[in-house]
Amino acid sequence: MGLGYQSEKIYPIKDYLKNEDFIQNQRIKKIQKHKSKESKNFVLPIECRFFKLCKYCTLSFSNECCLKYNLKFSNFPKECQSCYNLDLCQRANENKISENEIPDIKKINILQYNVKNPEYELKHNYIPKIDIHSPKLRKEQIKVIKSCKIKILNVSLQKIMSPNENELIKREYLVDLHELLNFSGRILLTTNIQDKFCEKIMQNIPKFIEQVNLMNVDVITTIDANFYWNQPLFITLLRLKDITIANRKINEMNCSQIGLVPPMIPVFTKKYMDFMLKANFKVIGIPMQEINKDNERGIKSKIFHTANSIKNYKTFKLLLISTSPIKASPKDLIFPDYYASLTWTFIKNSKLLSNEIINQKRKQKLHNYKEIARSNKNEIKNTYNIWW
Hints:
This protein is an alpha/beta fold. It has 13 helices and 10 strands. Helix 5 crosses helix 13. It is globular and about 60 Å long. The two termini are about 30 Å apart.
């Protein structure tokens, strides 16, 4: 959470696309094209027996695919045993998944719907997340948030999900969260959570809707699932279909909604962002935790460039979840409108400090994040106008 952007420069779109075209042309020299008409614009890796399931794959992506890598061995390694994709990978390995089962990214549009209550605008450019699971910590943190005159806070669904097999959300949180937290401002509930909880929600959508309504939150991000950069693309497409169906069902919630676009390869990110905007979402949220882990490979740059290019012809607000603002410059610009993270609460050597000093430092850090996020938005807006 909250990793910086210093190691990764963001260049103007035209330069980025030029470099990508060069890279793609170099790949074509070394690989064969699929003969399918649907896949004629995509190149596929040689010697991968899953290419029919992953028809959007390229040589570059294939080299990182965990399924292809793991099957160099006779069995799946130990680290695969806890992966929620294992069943699908095993079925693919045993030829039990057909091409017809895998949705085409273009055919996701068949599931198009209109969100009834989109979130139009958040009150602050930086939205502080709190430690809701600790009554003592949350009380202190909310006191700091109030003192900074911030009228919106972020609660993670991760911290309030129940490990109990028969429960969805912990009973103690099935109340009006404004009363529980003694906070009269707006509450944003973010849904980027562990895979096991994602699965639990997908299997209990009606109950999830009922329980979120009980908590009376003001804003929620749409459903998430297990999305990883190195998972096979056929799994990403299946999960994308699953969350889209789930999102249509949660359309009846009382709170306003932000369209969550999970971390995916750029072609999928662009298509799904377009899908969410056609569904009338006005704010798009991107969970950054997995993206930040892959900072060195430039994945973050590609995602931001994708979002930036869409801003050329669509009007929307961009929320980065689980990341904090760092002072931007024209050479490494990104275009978020909002940030949400817990990092404002992290204080060095906190065990050696009194609660009073800790809260003073948190207040200063929160104030700094608030100002950086606001100034970034203004600077980015000016540069964005020049670029386009």
